[in-house]
Amino acid sequence: MAGFFTSRLFFISLACVVFAATLPFYVSGYILGLLTVAFYFGVFAMAWDLLFGFAGEVNFGPTFLIGVGAYTAGILNNQFGWSVYLCIVLGALASVVAGFVLALPALRVRGPYFGLTTLVAVLMLQNFIVVFADLTGGEIGLTIPDVITIDAGANYWIALGFMTVSAAILYGLSQSPVGLVLQASGQDPVQAGALGFNIVKHKLAAFIVSAFFSGLSGALLVFYFGTASVGTVVDVAVGVNVIVSAVLGGRRTVLGAALGAIFLIVAGEFLRPTGELATFIVSAVALLVVLFFPGGFLGAALQREARS
Amino acid sequence: MRPFQILIDGFAISALYALGATGFTLIFGVSGVLNLSHGAIMVAAAVAAWAAASVLHMDTYSGALVGVVVALLMAFATYFAVVKPIQNSRRIPNEEKEIFVLTGTLLWGIMIQELIAYFFTNNAKTVLPIVEGVVEILGVRTPRNEIFTAIVCCLVIGLLWLLVNRTRTGKAVLAASMNPRGVTLLGLELTQIYVVVWGIYGILAGIAGVLLGMFLGVSSYSVGPLTASAFSIVVLGGLGSVSGSLIAAFVVGYLETLTAYLVSPAYRTIPALLLLVFVMYIRPQGLLGRR
């Protein structure tokens, strides 16, 4: 861990963040808005990678955690008019509760069975939102009266700062002894348990941390958008994008997941002139990476460094 | 009159679900692959049948045949372009192949879905039914097409049962699902068995897709829900157990029809999802699954 602060990865990340922080001085609000969304997505992907890459849990429902956080914050603000910051904190806490609920089956079932449970959780949340349309705005979406700020630069800095802090915490956690125990219990739970580690406690912790960051990011995202809808924070397609980002950037690297998310969002936007083919091209590129560079962007880069 | 209506409509929907899920569970049982491009292949079959009939002006039978052939080709493409490279890859650790197959087939499915949307738009398409008209059964006005769908589904599932239990190839497939290593020791090529299974899967998904296109109509938006429903039926029945999937398909089909008629069509999918969660808690391996 101490070696990290002198490693090349640390300086590259630091340079990237410093460079990114100066962007508002010379790029348009359009690009800033795009990157703001991409940074929140980066946090979704990193939180997912903590669960999959380290705890070994195939979570098909990242949007269950994201959606609960986003909608709780949005509904509280819409119904009671509480302050934005209080709503964001409560949204993140609601997401932690959701993470706890999601973790319960994970302690009983594994692999595809757990994957399906998480998928069902998303479908249930989606149905719930449509059925209780009075409260949630249903398929049209929930209007949120307050926003954090309307300044594009400030929004961008908040997103960048949030992503950097989340990345530091999640990466630090993944490299700590806790992360190692998680990795061990993901790969062979019986053996890790036999070595005396409390697997249940560690897995629960991973779920709670992942849920906290997903929910926080989801709540921040809806206050940036000024609206919460199924299509932006709950739909299975959003979850697919989160998973693809993490695999594309390199699973089990945490930081790679953020890179993958930024790539996915920016590439999707650049390909917009190709119209409906944009999603096709992004999926095709992602499939080629999965087939030929299974380690992802960062995985391939780290491997080359390790070899040289 | 209403109970009969639920009975008849529920049967047709359930039979269609059963046919769609059977191929899916067969592939999992034999090669451990969960094919998340399942919905896309079904929709591709239906859209191909629709295009053959409406754009190329073929008759309905040739149109249906075109649909099934397209699904067959898609299934082989999925296996050779996506699943096989991942299974044979040396750079992917064995314990992670499962998630890579899931991600790979998911992306592949999205690619198919986007191509369909690009060339044939997102509009819903209804394939011209092979049989038209309406008959009265027990006082319920039933489209002949609905009966046709139910009969074809049952017939195809019956043929599949005969193929698996009574032919040499089928027995090899069955053996591979029980013990892959044992099969290779007997001198059978496992890869060949996989190709046969993907072929059977393609035909089943194709027939299910074309029938669905005639019965309810499809659009590129149905890809996700179709995959999800096949996945949940298969898990409910027990991964890899064909008879479990058949039972689960009827449970889900009737539960949905009951809810749609007695409560509201808006709540259609909720009870089945609740049941699924409940079964996952008390019996994680599904109704007839083995762990």
Structural write-up:
The complex is a heterodimer of chains A (about 300) and B (about 290). Chain A is mainly alpha-helical. Chain A is about 75% helix and about 0% strand. Chain A has helices at about 10-20, 30-55, 60-80, 85-105, 110-130, 135, 150-175, 175-185, 190-195, 200-225, 230-235, 235-250, 255-270, 275-290, 295-305, and strands at about 140-145, 225-230. Chain A has a two-stranded antiparallel sheet. In chain A, helix 2 crosses helix 12, helix 3 (about 60-80) runs antiparallel to helix 4 and helix 13 packs across helix 15. The two termini of chain A are about 20 Å apart. The mean pLDDT of chain A is about 85. Chain B is mainly alpha-helical and about 290 residues long. Chain B has helices spanning about 1-30, 40-55, 60-90, 95-120, 145-165, 170-180, 180-185, 190-215, 225-235, 240-260, 270-280, and strands spanning about 135, 140-145. In chain B, strands 1-2 form a two-stranded antiparallel sheet. In chain B, helix 1 (about 1-30) packs antiparallel against helix 8 (about 190-215) and helix 5 crosses helix 6 (about 170-180). Chain B starts with a helix and ends in a 9-residue tail after the last helix. The model of chain B has no long low-confidence stretch (mean pLDDT about 85). At the A-B interface, helix 5, helix 12 and helix 14 of A face helix 3, helix 4, helix 9 and helix 11 of B.
Gross CATH architecture of chain A: Orthogonal Bundle
Strand fraction of chain B equals under 5%
Q: What is the radius of gyration of chain B?
A: 19 Å
Residue share in helix of chain A: over 70%
Question: What's the structural domain tally of chain A?
Answer: 1
Distance between the termini of chain A: 21 Å
Mean pLDDT of chain B: 85
Largest sheet of chain B: 2 strands, antiparallel
N to C succession of SSEs of chain A: HHHHHHEHHHHEHHHHH
**SS class of chain B:** mainly alpha
Tag the structure with descriptive keywords:
heterodimer; A: 308 residues; mainly alpha; ABC transporter involved in vitamin B12 uptake, BtuC; two-stranded antiparallel ribbon; 15 helices; 2 strands; B: 291 residues; 74% helix; globular
